[in-house]
């Protein structure tokens, strides 16, 4: 009996002792980074295969512009429905289905031109449109996962990590996809990336769930999340008043702070979509690189963008911890980054390949530093429906995915050069700074009735 009493006392003592927090959220953001890398690699498949595919299929620059824009049309149109689906059904189910669907549609692009009687341009447009439709919930889902798993003081870094995957995608996959085109033909790119995405969907289904249900998360880590303002990533109950409504959507579409954030994200994404659509083609057609050289050349600025994204996130969170000022901590890296990104304009006035790659590397390092939009969304979105708020934000930002490829296609067709396109892209850096400086105002959580 005394031994039993002693054991009970020891158990109670251990239960009362503070729990050393686990760090499962760090593994989770690493996994989210991998998923987002595959996401962006699938977006850029036609950019890498495009130079070869355009010759094989007889596509003009204007045809290419419309095909490259197809993703953006669907991606933008599906943002608000995708965000609402995340809030209604939860992140896990919607995100797993999205990965599986976009991977299947990616693989199908490899079959274009093999079936007689179908329009090649139309088929590619439709398939890339379907990829955009399926990918729509991905970044609002990322934002909701980060808001659920990370305290406010770590969200800048966490958001920067998953957002920097857009650059790492080309670092990791541009050489691989270029090799596939060179040795196996352009169709192989779509088959391989589609298969890889299906594997990613299975892995996501196994690993991702809410912190409260994750078997590896202990009470100490849960307390860090809760005390830091974490939200729920679970589905809303039926009839929950926190769900979608047009009144709430109207507030999201008319709030001045949010409108400034939307405009800035559009301008930042002009650089993103130049990079993931026309940049490899620019290196081949304007600068005379072969497909293998272009793949490795595109990886250098992408690596700098990846590093810049991490630097921007770390810097923003460091400033937030030191000052407690959310606005200054988010805006300072954005202004620094966009100033550096202006160097893309200089590429229109130099001829040396090494100097062009260097200037592009500086530009995309700066763009990476400034890519804090998703951290800002996590800071300002109403707690009840971060999915919807993220969807509206991403809808505006990715309108650049429609406009940029088409405008650049027309500029190149009209002038026979990419110089005007580079100037067009670079001017958006200035508009980004004006949006955050003159329109957004104080960055703070939006409260809605």
UniProtKB/TrEMBL annotation:
Q: Which domain of life is it from?
A: Bacteria
Spell out the NCBIfam families in the cross-references.
Answer: 2A0114
Q: Which SUPFAM superfamilies match?
A: MFS general substrate transporter
Tell me how this protein sits in the membrane: Multi-pass membrane protein
Q: What is this protein called?
A: MFS transporter
Q: Short name of one Pfam family for this protein?
A: MFS_1
Show the CDD domains listed in the entry: MFS_ExuT_GudP_like
């Amino acid at each position: 009996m005394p031994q039993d009493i002693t054991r009970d006392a020891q158990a109670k003592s251990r239960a009362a002792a503070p729990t050393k927090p686990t760090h499962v959220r760090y593994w989770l953001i690493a996994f989210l980074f991998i998923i987002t890398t595959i996401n962006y690699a699938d977006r850029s498949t036609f950019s890498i295969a495009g130079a070869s595919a355009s010759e094989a299929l007889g596509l003009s620059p204007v045809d290419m512009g419309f095909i490259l824009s197809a993703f953006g049309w669907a991606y933008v149109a599906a943002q608000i429905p995708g965000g609402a689906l995340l809030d209604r059904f939860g992140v896990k189910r919607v995100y797993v289905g999205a990965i599986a669907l976009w991977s299947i549609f990616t693989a199908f692009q490899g079959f274009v031109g093999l079936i007689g009687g179908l329009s090649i341009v139309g088929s590619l447009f439709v398939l890339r449109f379907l990829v955009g439709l399926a990918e729509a919930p991905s970044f609002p889902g990322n934002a909701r996962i980060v808001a659920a798993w990370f305290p406010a003081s770590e969200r800048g870094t966490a958001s920067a990590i998953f957002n920097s995957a857009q650059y790492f995608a080309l670092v990791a996959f541009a050489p691989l996809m270029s090799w596939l085109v060179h040795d196996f033909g352009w169709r192989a790119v779509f088959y391989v990336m589609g298969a890889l995405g299906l594997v990613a969907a299975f892995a996501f289904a196994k690993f991702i769930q809410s912190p409260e249900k994750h078997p590896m998360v202990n009470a100490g880590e849960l307390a860090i999340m809760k005390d830091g303002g974490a939200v729920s990533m679970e589905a809303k109950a039926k009839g929950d008043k926190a769900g979608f409504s047009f009144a709430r959507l109207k507030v999201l579409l008319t709030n001045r702070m949010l409108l400034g954030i939307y405009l800035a994200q559009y301008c930042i994404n002009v650089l993103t979509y130049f990079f993931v659509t026309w940049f490899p083609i620019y290196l081949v057609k304007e600068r005379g690189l072969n497909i293998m050289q272009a793949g490795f050349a595109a990886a250098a600025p992408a690596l700098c963008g990846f590093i810049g994204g991490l630097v921007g996130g770390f810097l923003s969170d460091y400033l937030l911890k030191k000052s407690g000022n959310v606005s200054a901590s988010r805006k300072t890296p954005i202004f620094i980054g966009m100033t550096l990104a202006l160097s893309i304009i200089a590429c229109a006035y130099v001829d040396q390949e090494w100097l062009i790659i260097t200037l592009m590397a500086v530009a995309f390092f700066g763009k990476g530093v400034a890519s804090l939009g998703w951290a800002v969304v996590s800071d300002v979105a109403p707690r009840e429906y971060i999915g919807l708020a993220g969807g509206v934000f991403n809808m505006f930002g990715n309108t650049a995915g429609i406009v940029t490829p088409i405008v650049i296609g027309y500029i190149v067709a009209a002038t026979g050069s990419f110089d005007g396109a580079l100037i067009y892209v670079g001017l958006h850096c200035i508009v980004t700074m004006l949006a955050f400086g003159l329109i957004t105002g104080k960055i703070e959580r939006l409260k809605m009735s």
